TrEMBL record:
This protein's name: Cupin type-2 domain-containing protein
Pfam families linked to this entry: Cupin_2
Domain Cupin type-2: 27-92
Organism: Pyrobaculum aerophilum (strain ATCC 51768 / DSM 7523 / JCM 9630 / CIP 104966 / NBRC 100827 / IM2)
Domain of life: Archaea
Sections of the chain in a coiled coil: none
InterPro entries, per database record: Bacilysin_H2HPP_isomerase (IPR052535), Cupin_2 (IPR013096), KdgF (IPR025499), RmlC-like_jellyroll (IPR014710), RmlC_Cupin_sf (IPR011051)
Matches recorded under SUPFAM superfamilies: RmlC-like cupins (SSF51182)
Amino acid sequence: MSWRWEKLSDCVERRYISGENVTVAQFILKEGCVVQRHSHPNEQITVVLQGLLEFDLGGRRLTAAAGDVVHIPPGVEHEVKAITDAVVIDVFSPPRSDWARGQDSYLRKN
């Protein structure tokens, strides 16, 4: 677990911390960045702090701007594109044990 910034690719930076029941992450996404389609067993709540994002949630597209909150149920395939530079907070439950094991390659392919 870490609260230091990690540069995952040319367009994604992340820092996160995990507790017993939750992981909280902050992401910085550059304009045009795409977080590749993936799914995970964790429930996810995304709070957009800055910018504009386009989500594909199981084939349903939606746009989220600063102040918007997006819910992603466990197991739903999703992809995110940064329409502008963006900053988000993501909350996951249960904690992201896959990240702790280094299994986050979908974040590194942009």
